[in-house]
Amino acid sequence: MTSSSSSLHCFLHPKAIAFVGATERSVWSNAALASLRTLGYAGQLYPVNRRGGSFHGMAAATSAEAIGEPVDTALLMVPADALDDALADLQRAGIGNAVLLSSGFAEAGEEGRERQRQLTAKARSRGLRILGPNCLGFVNFVDRSAVWTASLREPLPAGTLGIVSQSGALAGQLSFMAQVHGIGLSRMVSTGNESDIDIAEVIDYLVDDEHTRSIAVFAETVRDPQRFAAAAERALAVAKPIVVLKMGSSEITAQAAQAHTGSLVGDDRVFDAMCQRLGLMRVRSIEDLVFTAAFASMTGPFAAGGLAAVSMSGGMCEIFAERAEEEGLALTPLAPATEAALREVLPGYGTPQNPLDVTGAAMLEPELFGNALEALVRDPALGAAIVVADVPNAPANDTPLNRAVLAQVARGLAASPVPAIVCSHYVMQVSERSRELIAETGIRHIACGIHHAMSAAGAVRRWSETLRRRQGAQGVAAAVPATPPAQPLRSERETLAWLSQRGVPVVPVRLSRSADEAARFADELSGPVVLKIASAQIAHKTEVGGVALNLQGADAVRAAWQAMDARVRAARPEAEIDGILVAPMRQGGLELFVGTVRDPQWGPALAVGLGGIWVEALRDTSLRLLPVTPAEVKDMLAELRGARLLDGWRGAPAADRDAIAEAVAAIGNAALALGPELVSLEVNPLRVDGRTVEALDALAVWGAAG
């Protein structure tokens, strides 16, 4: 158990609670009391009101100190200007934990942020842990206790899904949705403004909680990225799934936007890359947040292998196949032995394939469903299975036939060697009747419909692959120490030289300081050449006429050199020009873009995409946090919409993906070695022609200190 887990245990498992500011005239007081009664709270409750009196038949103490008994957690329902006195009262009473309902703090502008800073400082000086302010509280469904100032709906069976949300109202809606669909919760915590306890600390606590099998997180922002990442690492280490719905996207910084990478990435995509690195399952809706987290809690990690999908409808099987392709799920071809076993049980018109249609014959002979599943789930290439079957939730569909089919599904999956889950045909409510049938049959059932089930399956498959890489110590790059040069790289020539030193294949390039010198260099290269202006003040050379292509012969090189020198000096008279670079002209092949950027929250990241003009036109890039391994780079290449171009297009040779991956990983390491003052390192283009991979142009962008 971590220090966070130990610190929060008493807070979130209160056996004695104080309501400070309790009054029957307050909607918050009444809602908090109603929540405890709905849960069947068996602990002590102490109302506190400075005027005394009673609260729903309970005598109110005039202060927390006057309670005179040990209290684990207090709910503060007092105005913001009375909080200082209330905190001092808690300290005198020996109460170390408080939920702050009050608003008007950081969410209310700079004045509110200053009030929150003062509140936090005072609470810490008094040794108090704070949940909030602007917070609805928490619910402990397992131990039937809560400090929750909103409504709860009955029945509330405990389950294994934990909810952490910065929005209390949304947390309440998530709990309602879970209840409607038969998904039991373990804990629900609203963190509000997070003056003290934040989502990262609650996640860390839930990682250790034996009653929580999966964690659903709603976040508007991540205030402590380092602690958040550490909690995610711990969850990954114990294979506890975390599903995240995070709002907000923006460009990374104005400074990073000086280079292409900043405008192509944005901090929201860097958050995506962090989720991918740490195995967090990111979703885009509250439905997928709840359903994916519940799905993952039932299945756990998928085994290595493909997915099997089973239904009694050919149309449903078609939907399965299409959604599987959208989610990148492999519907495994069945082994010959599996096909043979299925032919023994299917009707003559049935086809042993994946997805498997057991046909309408199962309506006449439910045993057919069970027999087919028994044969299917033993296929050696399977990693998981999804079966479509509804659980009756009302008298109208609670027929003997539906019960018989459900019993056969349960029998067929009972000895499954891989995770197997049953989903409804469409999103359905789960009634008490449904819960009884699920418990009776022992099936893992989620009433989310095929669409959400396949979304969840795709997320769990990706999480499972991350787990296998981590557990096998494969595909995780080692940290690269910073070993920056004596002076920041200021020019293309210096940047290319640095990349070459760090193992990146680079086009040969020489700096000429006269037209004659350029002609001599060109002659030594014995072929057409490129001229490019060399100036640390000119990042985008084409905008000032600083690039000349496909020059052949000494006279052409001299003339182009002189014209470029004059043109650029006229366009940028203030720029310090070092000379003009001479490099061999490369033609043909495919151009890639490789760029790194430093996110203020999550650190350095690397983007790969089609290069040249296409990087801006198509914005087709894949992103990872640094460092990356060549294996990760190959995954990035496969994610590009233009990935097929790498495999040869209209007669072009197929690109050597291994060679590309080695070069891109080396570029990432070269960027890391330059240290934290580097804003962005870009190679555009990285030319690929069959087995030849070569950086043709490079740019380093530095922060103010660089």
Plain-language structure description:
It contains 22 helices and 29 strands. By secondary structure, it is an alpha/beta fold. It folds into four domains: 3-292, 3-Layer(aba) Sandwich (Rossmann fold), CATH 3.40.50; 301-471, Rossmann fold (3-Layer(aba) Sandwich), CATH 3.40.50; 508-584, ATP-grasp fold, A domain (Dna Ligase, domain 1, 2-Layer Sandwich), CATH 3.30.1490; 590-702, D-amino Acid Aminotransferase, Chain A, domain 1, CATH 3.30.470.20. Helix 6 (199-208) runs parallel beside helix 7 (225-237), helix 10 crosses helix 16 and helix 11 (336-345) packs antiparallel against helix 13 (367-376). The chain is flat, with a radius of gyration of 31 Å. The two termini are 42 Å apart. Mean pLDDT is 91; it is low at 250-266. Keywords: ATP-binding, Ligase, Nucleotide-binding. In the N-terminal section; belongs to the acetate CoA ligase alpha subunit family. It comes from Variovorax boronicumulans. It holds the Pfam family ATP-grasp_5.
Question: Which characteristics define this entry?
Answer:
single chain, 706 residues, alpha/beta, Rossmann fold, Dna Ligase, domain 1, seven-stranded mixed sheet, six-stranded antiparallel sheet, 29 strands, 21% strand, flat, metal ion binding, NAD(P)-bd_dom_sf
| CATH class membership of the largest domain | Alpha Beta
CATH-assigned homologous superfamily of the largest domain: Succinyl-CoA synthetase domains
CATH architecture term of the largest domain: 3-Layer(aba) Sandwich
Low-confidence parts: 250-266
Mean pLDDT over all positions:
91
Got a strand count?
Answer: 29
Radius of gyration: 31 Å
Count of domains: 4
Assign an overall shape. flat
Largest sheet: 7 strands, mixed
Structural class: alpha/beta
List the total number of helices: 22
Query: Biggest sheet, strands in spatial order?
Result: 9-8-11-10-12-13-14
CATH topology of the largest domain: Rossmann fold
Strand content: 15-25%
Report, as a whole number of angstroms, the end-to-end distance: 42 Å
